[in-house]
């Protein structure tokens, strides 16, 4: 086990960390998305910023959400959004209620997806801030099952009758 | 630590969240170069089933058995620090 006390020292050079301003940038497909500037622990020696896995996940989800809400309806953006949530194509398909093949076609650009899909994925990205992807998939499966009852209800149409008029 | 203890620590840290996993700048560069997002790392760690010790670097472990968001096997190299924090060194295909 390492004796370095993570949190106080830079993981790159071992320098002292101090709070400093930082603007995170992510490449989402062909778009560069800048996050708002905030304060983060920064190395006084090499200038590297200390980030946790949670921090990076949050930055990447926000970047994906921004790109989708800005109307960047491109396959690479959709793929980035899915990956930022830690979902496979199959899982995103379950959450959105589509076939996995459709997600693949959207991501590769073989088919275009519209604004309603972008908004749905952006909505999932909002949910992903508070829920684990596995939780989202489980909820989507439950919703699907609730809408597909095992019993089939039959509607009876009355027999047609001729009515005398006048 | 035994492999079982390491695996348990990895899962516990995932549950805890709140910055339990530190990403070195080197790791962030490697992730960008190989097209991995944080979601891939989280997914691989969540599904991990094995921890094997790195004989060359004390405290370094290879966490394997999990898959990334493309459903491909992904091994994550980590180091466990004395305060319980876990540093992600690099993702390995």
Task: Characterize the structure shown.
The complex is a heterodimer of chains A (166) and B (93). Chain A has 6 helices and 5 strands; from the N terminus they run E-E-E-E-E-H-H-H-H-H-H. Chain A is an alpha+beta fold and 166 residues long. The longest helix of chain A has 17 residues. In chain A, helix 1 packs antiparallel against helix 2, helix 2 packs across helix 4 and helix 3 packs across helix 4. In chain A, the strands form 2 sheets. A two-stranded antiparallel ribbon of chain A has the order 1-4. The N terminus of chain A is likely disordered. Helices cover 44% and strands 13% of the residues of chain A. The mean pLDDT of chain B is 91. In chain B, a hairpin with a 5-residue loop joins strand 4 and strand 5. By secondary structure, chain B is of the alpha+beta class. Chain B has a single domain, classed as YaeB-like fold (2-Layer Sandwich). The interface between A and B is medium-sized, with 32 and 34 residues. Strand 5 of chain A pairs antiparallel with strand 1 of chain B.
